[in-house]
Specification:
α2 (about 20-35) packs across α4. The protein is mainly alpha-helical and about 110 residues long. It is built from five helices and two strands. The chain is elongated, with a radius of gyration of 16 Å. The protein has helices at about 5-10, 20-35, 50-55, 60-85, 100-105, and strands spanning about 1-5, 40-45. The protein is about 50% helix and about 5% strand. It has a two-stranded parallel ribbon with strand order 1-2. The protein starts with a strand and ends in a 7-residue tail after the last helix. The protein has a single domain (about 1-105), classed as Carbamate kinase.
């Protein structure tokens, strides 16, 4: 299991994605894969969006979190593209983004634990 912080993708830039940083991470993943290491990636999105910060400025927390999920998908797509360009085979990579999914979840009644 490899947890990649969104912050690690911004490299030397103040925010967003630095393609040099993404390419470096992809090359390291590729090297490990060549050794036969099975890798599961958990991606963060903090280089693009911070749900907690948006909530503190008045945004609904669930909506802010959904925006964070989209930031995570943006980062995952950048990494996936870099892996593909390097010829790294990720046979189980799935694109999980569904444009309507977040809004459906948002309209589902919430239950809080006691």
């Amino acid at each position: 299991m490899l947890k990649i912080s969104g912050e690690s993708l911004k490299g030397d830039t103040p925010f967003g994605i630095d393609t040099t940083a993404v390419t470096y991470l992809a090359s390291q993943i590729g090297e490990a894969a060549k050794l036969g290491v099975e890798i599961a990636v958990v991606m963060g999105g903090g280089n693009i969006w911070r749900g907690e910060a948006a909530e503190s400025r008045g945004m609904d927390r669930a909506t802010a979190d959904y925006a964070g999920m989209l930031a995570t998908m943006i980062n995952a797509l950048a990494l996936q593209d870099s892996l593909e360009q390097l010829g790294v085979d990720f046979p189980n990579a799935e694109r999980a983004a569904d444009a309507g999914h977040c809004r459906t979840l948002h309209k589902t009644p919430r239950h809080s634990a006691p």
